[in-house]
Amino acid sequence: MNTIAVKSATRTLQILEAFAAAGEPLGINELARRLAIPVSACYALLKTLEQRGYLYELGLRKGWYPTLRWLRNARAIAAHDPMLERVTPLLEALGRTTGETIVFGKRSGAAVVYLEVVESPHSIRYSAQPGDRKPLHSSSAGKALLGALAPAGRAALLDKLELTRVTPNTIVRRELLEKDLAAGARRGWYATRGENVADVHAIAAPVRIDGEHYAVVVAGPAPRIEGTLKAHAAALSRTTKAIEARE
Fold first, then answer.
1. What string of pLDDT tens digits covers the 247 residues of the chain?
2. Less crowded by CB within 10 Å, the N or C end of the chain?
3. Contact status, residue 104 vs residue 115, Cβ threshold 8 Å
4. Chain centroid to CA 99
């Protein structure tokens, strides 16, 4: 599926991600290498961000580093997200009930994007971050969002999807995926068993908010999920109903 990417925006985000991954100041040559762009283009981006107050230079040959302006703006944005204000308390309650990682996501083209993640307190858990993108066909959230579509819309989207193999358990045949989605619709929740991460099982249900479909996920190590599947599915159903009922 075709996507639109603005080069300068992509490179700006790549710079921020490079610093997050490195955890230390980076020189211009290293940044240019990581972005696979000419040093001159990298320098122009760095100077622009410096002028806007988002980067500072530590000194000759010591590199660059982001300022706290990124963090303060991010906190201000997160503090006033109307959707997360509505759902996060219920997601956190579901996390306490199940003891597993809870994900809230929405479809973005051919993928599901994670909008919120409430991680399990267990040391062995499914770990994810807001902003992560997962394929529709191999994630429980993606299946829930596919299942929420009207038949004609789902068929049109499936016509465009590439059912790539993410793990040995990924469903890559359309007829099997459609059968799996039908089973999920009958149950009221959708499942993946090692289809996106080999040792992770997950269940998800769609939820409709202001006319838009989202998905709520309970995910964790396969043995824990399978051992408590019925209870988790019931808790998930209660949560989606509560979200839809909240004004």
1. 445 668 888 899 999 999 999 999 999 999 999 999 999 999 999 999 999 999 999 976 789 999 999 999 988 888 888 888 889 999 999 999 999 999 999 999 999 999 999 999 999 999 999 999 999 999 999 999 999 999 999 999 999 999 999 999 999 999 999 999 999 999 999 999 999 999 999 999 999 999 999 999 999 999 999 999 999 999 999 999 999 998 6
2. C
3. yes
4. 20
Domains and CATH numbers, the chain: 7-72 (1.10.10.10), 81-245 (3.30.450.40)
Q: Which two tokens stand for residue 15?
A: 């710079």
Sign of CA dihedral 11, 77, 218, 179: negative
Are 56 and 67 in contact, with CB atoms under 8 Å apart? yes
CA 119, CA 101: separation in Å to the nearest integer? 4
- Contact between residue 205 and residue 181 where contact means Cβ atoms under 8 Å apart: no
Residues, the chain, total?
247
Q: Whose CA is closest to 117, among 92, 141, 142?
A: 92
Cα(26)–Cα(60) distance, integer angstroms: 12
> CA-to-CA distance for 203 and 52, rounded, in angstroms?
43
Q: How far apart are CA 113 and CA 118, in angstroms?
A: 15
Torsion sign across C-alpha atoms 134, 195, 99, 89: positive
Among 152, 150, 225, smallest CA distance to 195 is for 225
